[in-house]
């Protein structure tokens, strides 16, 4: 069976930096309050008129170039997002068009929230393993700032999220570099703990209207306590499963890259595993929670900083709405 590798990876974030101090008057909060509860110092938000695909496009182009191919060499585009340009179609065919691809390739979206990038890896890995495709563009990208309540009433959730995009190209490997394994999970009992309901068919016949908006159903709702309790169990559990599946120990791993949702979640997860925070990559202070983009952004920055290099083993893990959670083991 063929194995897949990440042949190219890149990210893009908006130029607009929104610091905690920028939110103090807007959301009646303080820099200290935000940092103490989340570890976030700043995040990026798009400017008016910038769609998700606009933000993702530079990352896609760079990842394709890094993989040594051209857009027309792609066999498939798969996007993970909860904030697509349109309700339909998905963002993948929009990116196909913006990349100038002239062939009729497979292009579709998935919705797995903060776990999306590892879900994308699992899907793309199987396409490579079966020989179905040779070049697959995976995109984790979200414009969360367009979904937030930016008033004091929305403070608990509004301070957490930023905008960002990450893209990776999968190809068959020709050496030891490969995706060793991926592991994806869900438990629908967590749906009500983290969600944005509208626009949705449950609000038939209009999906969204003034009453739905007045009730705030179009905004993210989070039971922070329950999400925290589950995340600090499920992410270590998923990491351990990936290690056991590949007969690895933490000592074999150069770096753990976890979804950047909250510094306290990362800290508690590391503590439960008996792992030093030096082995857990952190950049949430710079970008906040960019949902589907946190892992590819962190991978790019960690790679640039020399945190891992060719031949090293890294572990990815995430937890998000659904509940969904996942892990992946990669030999770079």
CATH topology of the largest domain: Peroxisomal Thiolase, Chain A, domain 1
**Tally of alpha and pi helices:** 11
Our estimate of the beta-strand percent is 15-25%
Number of DSSP strand runs:
13
Structural class: alpha/beta
Please summarize the sheet with the most strands.
5 strands, mixed
Mean pLDDT: 96
CATH superfamily of the largest domain: Thiolase/Chalcone synthase
Shape: globular
Q: Helical proportion?
A: 25-40%
Which architecture name of the largest domain does CATH use?
Answer: 3-Layer(aba) Sandwich
Name of the CATH first level of the largest domain = Alpha Beta
Give the topology, please.
Elements: E1 4-12, E2 17-19, H1 20-27, H2 31-38, E3 42-44, H3 52-66, E4 76-80, H4 91-98, E5 106-110, H5 116-129, E6 136-143, H6 155-158, E7 163-172, E8 178-186, E9 194-195, H7 210-214, E10 221-222, H8 224-245, E11 255-258, H9 263-272, H10 284-287, H11 294-304, E12 313-320, E13 324-331
Parallel strand pairs: 4-5, 4-6, 11-12
Antiparallel strand pairs: 1-7, 2-3, 6-7, 8-13, 9-10, 12-13
């Amino acid at each position: 069976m063929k194995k897949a590798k990440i042949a190219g990876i890149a990210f893009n974030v908006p130029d607009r930096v929104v610091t905690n101090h920028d939110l103090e008057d807007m959301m009646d909060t303080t820099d200290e309050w935000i940092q103490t509860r989340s570890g976030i110092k700043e995040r990026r938000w798009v400017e008016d008129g910038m769609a998700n695909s606009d933000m993702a496009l530079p990352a896609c182009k760079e990842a394709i170039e890094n993989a040594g191919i051209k857009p027309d060499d792609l066999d498939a585009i798969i996007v993970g997002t909860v904030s697509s340009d349109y309700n339909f179609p998905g963002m993948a065919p929009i990116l196909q068009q913006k990349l100038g691809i002239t062939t009729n390739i497979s292009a579709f979206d998935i919705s797995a929230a903060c776990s999306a990038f590892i879900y994308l890896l699992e899907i793309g890995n199987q396409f490579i393993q079966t020989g179905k495709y040779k070049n697959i563009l995976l995109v984790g990208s979200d414009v969360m700032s367009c979904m937030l309540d930016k008033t004091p009433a929305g403070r608990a959730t509004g301070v957490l999220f930023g905008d960002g995009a990450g893209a990776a190209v999968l190809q068959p490997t020709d050496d030891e570099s490969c995706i060793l394994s991926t592991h994806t999970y869900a438990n629908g009992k967590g749906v009500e703990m983290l969600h944005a309901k509208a626009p949705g068919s449950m609000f038939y016949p209009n999906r969204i209207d003034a009453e739905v908006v007045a009730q705030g159903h179009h905004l993210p709702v989070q039971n922070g306590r329950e999400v925290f309790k589950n995340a600090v169990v499920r992410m270590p559990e998923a990491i351990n499963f990936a290690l056991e599946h590949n007969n690895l120990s933490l000592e074999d791993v150069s770096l753990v890259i976890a979804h950047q949702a909250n510094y306290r979640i990362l800290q508690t997860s590391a503590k439960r595993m008996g792992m030093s925070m030096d082995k857990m990559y952190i950049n949430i202070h710079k970008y906040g929670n960019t949902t589907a983009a946190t892992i590819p952004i962190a991978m790019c920055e960690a790679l640039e900083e020399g945190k891992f290099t060719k031949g090293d083993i890294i572990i990815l893990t995430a937890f998000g709405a659904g509940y969904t959670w996942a892990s992946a083991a990669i030999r770079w």
